[in-house]
Design brief:
Layout (H helix, E strand, L loop, with lengths): L4 H8 L3 H9 L6 H14 L11 E6 L5 H14 L5 E6 L4 H14 L2 E5 L5 H8 L4 E4 L8 E4 L2 H14 L3 E5 L6 H17 L2 E4 L7 H14 L3 E4 L2 H13 L9 E6 L2 H5 L5 E5 L1 H16 L9 E3 L1 E4 L15 E4 L4 E4 L10
Parallel strand pairs: 1-2, 1-3, 3-4, 4-5, 5-11, 6-7, 6-8, 8-9, 9-10
Antiparallel strand pairs: 10-12, 13-14
Helix pairs in contact: 1-2, 1-3, 2-3, 4-12, 5-6, 7-8, 9-10
Length: 348
């Protein structure tokens, strides 16, 4: 009969937990104690597990200051810590050439690579990392697993919500031109607007931050649209601040919808209506996929799609002079709250 771990513990004169640590958490035991457990394991014929090896995972993001990537990195770090694995973080600063160079460097230094929102050519990433396991988040890749935060359902809900409020003209403020997520969101909105017979204006590309939203505010106001959907929450909040300086109010004059549902979206004034994506899940799933590749396990061949959901807050309301009382639903809290009807609010 094969020896069990409890036999090792009894032979070494230690607890079962201490015996387990000798094989799984080496740094938690004194060297003499671990040696005593290993010698006992040999004497009783215990089949010792392979020694644990710490892994190094490189994670590349286009902008480490973006709240989406910060949340994703936090999740990856939390998942890595129990195994005492290490994370190498690189910020590509939205630069495709820097991204490729970092992939080449980290591909040699790390056991696996997670590339978030790539800005380089899909084929370039695979060439750059060589044989090192690679997972791409929110982007395209050749011969590498992909995790996608799919916003189609959430944007479908957003356009339905805005149309039900009375909006028939929308404007989309896009993010970086090299972003797969931006191209996908623009195409989804174009298709949805055509299906619902909504007028859609797409303004120029902007940086994926508050500054991008501030820069787009004048174009949003000039578009004549009564509602705007932004590339992400940060751009949406920049638009909100920018139109205020131009004499417009949100949502009295222009309704605003973001994408991501970062923490600060709920704290903005008014609270930001947004399409929620599963940021934490994208981090944990991409890590699991790259670790499976490292361990030689089968990996998901097609894109792993994570769903989305509209969260309605105070930044959306009926358009000016619609004659409809504004009612918004706080989906997060599960409560419906009424807003007082506007008195004489008009577009300036």
């Amino acid at each position: 009969m094969a020896a069990k771990l409890k036999d090792v513990a009894q032979e070494a004169g230690v607890s079962l937990a201490t015996a387990s640590r000798a094989f799984s958490s080496v740094d938690m035991l004194a060297p003499d104690t671990r040696r005593r457990v290993l010698e006992a394991a040999q004497r009783v014929g215990y089949d010792m597990p392979a020694p644990h090896r710490s892994r190094t995972i490189a994670v590349l993001v286009p902008d480490v200051s973006n709240a989406v990537y910060a949340a994703m990195l936090r999740t990856i770090q939390e998942k890595l810590w129990p195994g005492r694995h290490r994370m190498l973080l690189a910020d590509t600063s939205e630069d495709p050439a820097r991204e490729t160079e970092l992939l080449e460097t980290l591909g040699r230094e790390a056991d696996g690579v997670i590339l978030c929102s790539p800005r380089s050519d899909p084929a370039a990433a695979g060439r750059a990392v060589g044989s090192t396991p690679l997972v791409v988040v929110n982007g395209e890749a050749e011969q590498a697993p992909v995790v996608l935060m799919d916003v189609e359902q959430g944007l479908r809900q957003a356009t339905e919500h805005l149309q039900s409020l009375g909006h028939d003209s929308l404007v989309y403020v896009p993010g970086p031109a090299a972003s797969w997520a931006n191209r996908t969101r623009c195409q989804i909105l174009t298709d949805l607007a055509a299906q619902r017979q909504l007028d859609l204006t797409v303004v120029g590309n902007q940086s994926a931050d508050v500054h991008g939203g501030l820069a787009a505010a004048a174009a949003v106001a000039a578009s004549g649209a009564t509602a705007v959907i932004a590339y992400n929450d940060l751009v949406a909040m920049g638009i909100q601040a920018g139109i205020r300086t131009l004499g417009y109010r949100c949502p009295d004059d222009i309704s605003i919808v973001g994408i991501d549902n970062v923490d600060v979206a709920a704290a903005s004034d008014p609270g930001l209506t947004t399409v929620q994506v599963d940021i934490d899940k994208s981090g944990s799933l991409s890590l699991a996929m790259v670790m499976d590749q490292i361990d030689g396990k089968p990996v998901h061949t097609g894109p792993a799609r994570l769903g989305s959901q509209l969260i309605v807050r105070g930044s959306t309301a009926p358009p000016p002079d619609s004659g409809t009382e504004s009612v918004t639903a706080d989906v997060v809290a599960g409560a419906v709250r009424g807003r007082r009807p506007r008195t004489g609010s008009t577009r300036r």
